[in-house]
Amino acid sequence: MTELLAPAGSMEALKAAISNGCDAVYLGMQKFGARAYSSNFDLESLQEAVTYAHLRDVKIYVAMNTIVFENEVEEMKEQIRQLNEIGVDGIIVQDLAAFDYIVENFVDMEAHCSTQMGIDDVDGTLLFKELGAKRVVLSREVEMANVKEIKRIAEIPLEIFVHGALCVSYSGNCLMSGLMGNRSANRGRCVGSCRKEYELVDKTTGTSLGKYHILSTKDLNTIDYIEDLKEIDSLKIEGRMKDPTYVANVVSKYRMALEHKITEEDKENLKKTFNRTFTKGYLFREDKRNITNIVRPNNFGYEIGTISKVIKDMYEITLTRPLNQNDNIRISHNKEDVNLTVAKLYDKDGELINKADRVCYIKIKEKLSTGDLVYKTKDYFYTKELEASLEKEFKRFNLDIRVYASPGSKLFIDAEGLGFHYFYESEEILGEAINNPTTKEQVIKQFSRLNDTIFELNQGLSIILCKLF
Hints:
Blueprint: E1 3-8, H1 11-19, E2 24-28, H2 43-55, E3 59-64, H3 73-86, E4 90-93, H4 96-105, E5 110-113, H5 122-131, E6 135-137, H6 144-154, E7 158-164, H7 176-181, E8 198-202, E9 207-212, E10 219-221, H8 226-229, E11 234-237, H9 244-258, H10 264-268, E12 278-279, E13 302-311, E14 314-319, E15 323-324, E16 328-333, E17 336-341, E18 345-346, E19 352-353, E20 355-356, E21 359-363, E22 373-378, H11 380-388, E23 397-404, E24 410-417, E25 420-429, H12 440-447, E26 455-457
Parallel strand pairs: 1-2, 1-11, 2-3, 3-4, 4-5, 5-6, 6-7, 7-11, 10-12, 23-26
Antiparallel strand pairs: 7-10, 8-9, 13-14, 13-22, 14-21, 15-20, 16-17, 16-22, 18-19, 23-24, 24-25
Helix pairs in contact: 1-2, 1-9, 3-4, 5-6
C-alpha cells in the first residue's frame, strides 16, 4: 500500500497528521535537520512522539539531512545511537558519513537517501541500493515517467514529494542563502533568498524593468494525479514549518484521494490553508512559465470578490464566494496589500451580519479603489473544523474482551488487541446481588466506553459472561 508521509515540526502537528490519516511522519531534531527554525523535537518529546505514533501503527522517520562538519561527527553518531534506542523507523540523510554509520551499525533502522543527495536517475539509485539504502527520496525535478522507470529497474522503495513548497535550487541544494545571507540552507538555516523581491534591469540601457519575486516558486499540488502516484511507495508532503491546521488539511485530502473519496470541493479546500498558488511541478511536466508566482511569495489565499463601490466610509464588495465574520482577507491595491480580519460585516442597510454570499460592506481606513481584488487568506469556520480534527483517532483497533464473573469468585478479564494478550484478575471476591443483579447488557455498555482510547470492541461475541451475578 502506498505510504502517505506527513511533516511535523511539533508534537501538535504530529498528532494532526496522524489524526487525519497519515501512515508515517517525518520530523527533525534540534540539530542536523534541514529546518533549524522549526520547533523540532528533543529526545524526550521524540520518545513521546514515537510511542504515540507506534501505538497507532504509524512510522517515524527523523530527518538528519544537513551536511555534517568534521568536528560534529561524534555528536552525529551519538544522536543516531539515541534515535535507535528510542526506536525510530528510519533516518533521512544527506551526508555520506551519517549514511555509512547507519548502514554499518543498525540493522533495525533504515537509512533513507534525502532528496538533497540529488539522486535523479537509475544509476544513482542502484548505487545507493548497493551501498545499503532502504529508500531513495528522488529529486523533485524528476518526471513521473522517469520515476516509474527508476522504480521498475532499481527495485527499491522510492519516495517523492507530492505537495508543498518547492525550492528554486536543484534538489534543494541551495548555495544562494549562504552567499547572500551568510546562512547555509544545507545546514538548515535558509534565509529564503528565493522569496525576496528583485529588480530586473536592462543592462544595455540601465532601464529598470520592475521589481518582482522572480525566483519564488509556487507550491506543488499533485492531487489530480493520484492514480499515477499510487504506483510509488511513499508520497511525501512538505511542511515541517507549517502549523497543525495546514498539516491536517493537506493530509486529510490526500488520504481521501488515495481512498477514492475526494470531491472537487475537497480539492478546492486545499486553498483554505497556506499556499502560494499551485503548480503540478516538474513531476508532471509543468510549463516552465508556470512554476513561479512572481507577484507574491507568501500566503496567496484565494479570490472571493471585488471592491465594486465606495459609499462614504464603506466599501462594497461583490462576492463570488461567501465571506464570514472573523475571516481574514487581503485586498490588492496598486500592487500593495491591505490585510485585515473581518471584525464587522454589514448588509446594504448598514446592519451587522455574520455572513454574506453576494454583496457585503466593510469599513476600512486604508484607501482602496473599485476593481481591487479581494482574497480570503483564512476561513474562520473551516479553520475551526480543522482544529476539531487535530486529536481525533483516525482509525481504531479491534479489541476482543472476555469477562468471567461469578458469585464467590474473582473477576477475570481476558483481552486481545494489537497482537498482545492481556489478563486481569481482581483482588476482590464477587458477591451475589440481592437486588438488581448486573446484566450482560450493562457489562457490555461499560466496556464499550473506549472513546478516549485507540480501541473499539470487536463486533460479534466480544464479551462473554460465563455467569451473571
